[in-house]
Amino acid sequence: MAPTNTxxxxxxxxxxxxxxxxxxxxxxxxxxxxxxxxxxxVRRHPGISVHLGACDACALDFxxxxxxxxx
Length: 71
Hints:
71 residues, 76% helix, mainly alpha
C-alpha cells in the first residue's frame, strides 16, 4: 500500500537516503556522472540515488540538470 500522508512517507524513508541537503549539494556532480556512466553515478553516490527515487522535488531538479546538459 502506498503512503498516504507526509508522516507515513517520512517513516518509510530508506536508511541509506542521503536527504535533500546532501543531494542538493552534490546534484551537479551526480548529474555529470550520470550523463557519462549512470551505473557509476549510483555506485559512487548510492544515497543520492536512493533519495532521487523518494523525493519528487530533488528528482525534478535532477531531471532539469540533465535536460540542460543534454543534446
